[in-house]
From TrEMBL:
One of its GO terms (molecular function) is peptidase activity. It comes from Chryseobacterium geocarposphaerae. The keyword Ubl conjugation does not apply. This is Putative Zn-dependent protease DUF2268. GO terms for biological process: proteolysis.
Length: 296
């Protein structure tokens, strides 16, 4: 009997461990609770409470996203007027919902890719510098303050994209500091997002473009390719910013983050040339090898 109990315990532990490779940390509920409770306190007390309860437990997150303790406390003080709006928003989308979705999507992405999703996701109210994004290779952030995050469906739309990035943090060990790395990485994440959702959403939605922005890319494909050919191996941060940032445009005709579109076209061409299951190569092969074997 003891042996049976021991075996069952190991099985239960194994299932629990397998289901918790995604660590979802709901900072947003802590922010709302603390800010509401102490909003009428004096500045000295608030500084200590905000530091002890909001900053210190998540120090690595805040240092990577917003700044040190003083900056985080200052930001929370300056945004106390947002508490009511945040509370109303949390009725539509909140950390509990997102945590559940992350567990669900990580399991489904494992079925699709064969890989576990490992890592930490922080759900918070912040400066809205990203809707969903990475803090280097440390963690992922979902900022509920961002205008894109209006419902759980909006967040779920892009989860396969972000989970693809998180899987690749573990599977792809190649170091590439050129523009090609984010181009292939983002393009593959877009391609995987489309593969997961099949025909539910348009390519423009997977790219984060409007329909007219996607059309502009298609109409100016040769100009985009010329820029890519000239700069694909560049390590210049300004060049990489044009390809990756949604705020930076190659020209007024095109959307920001054209690297997403270029990368998607490379992955699309790679799969056409190398076979329907060749997309799996991107998880382990270098960006340069994927590009060179794509024929793009």
């Amino acid at each position: 009997m003891k042996k049976l109990i021991s075996i069952l315990s190991l099985l239960v532990f194994g299932v629990f461990f397998a289901q918790n490779k995604i660590n979802a940390v709901d900072v947003s509920s802590v922010q709302l609770r603390i800010m509401q409770k102490y909003r009428n306190s004096d500045s000295i007390q608030k500084k200590k409470i905000y530091s002890d309860s909001i900053y210190s437990p998540y120090q690595k997150l805040w240092n990577g996203y917003l700044g040190n303790s003083d900056k985080v406390i200052k930001w929370h003080n300056e945004n106390e007027s947002q508490i009511k709006a945040w509370q109303q928003k949390s009725e539509k989308i909140n950390g509990k919902q997102i945590s559940s979705s992350l567990q669900k999507f990580s399991k489904e992405m494992k079925k699709l890719t064969g890989y576990d999703t490992k890592g930490t996701w922080y759900i918070l109210f912040g400066p809205a510098w990203t809707d969903l994004g990475g803090l280097g290779k440390y963690a992922m952030v979902i900022d509920l303050s961002h205008e894109n995050n209006t419902s759980i469906e909006k967040v779920e739309l892009i989860l396969p994209h972000e989970i693809t990035h998180q899987i690749m943090m573990t599977t792809n060990k190649h170091i590439d500091k050129t523009a090609l790395e984010p181009i292939i990485g983002e393009g593959f994440a877009v391609w995987m997002n489309q593969k997961y959702w099949k025909k539910k959403y348009s390519l423009a939605q997977h790219l984060g473009y409007t329909d007219s922005e996607l059309k502009a890319c298609e109409q100016n494909l040769q100009n985009i390719k010329d820029f890519f050919e000239k700069n694909k191996f560049s390590e210049d941060k300004d060049i990489i910013d044009i390809l990756r940032s949604r705020e930076t445009k190659l020209n007024e005709k095109l959307p920001g983050a054209i690297g997403y579109y270029i990368g998607y076209k490379i992955i699309e061409q790679y799969v056409l040339k190398n076979g329907k299951d060749s997309w799996k190569d991107v998880f382990t092969k270098s960006p340069r090898e994927i590009y060179e074997k794509s024929g793009f």
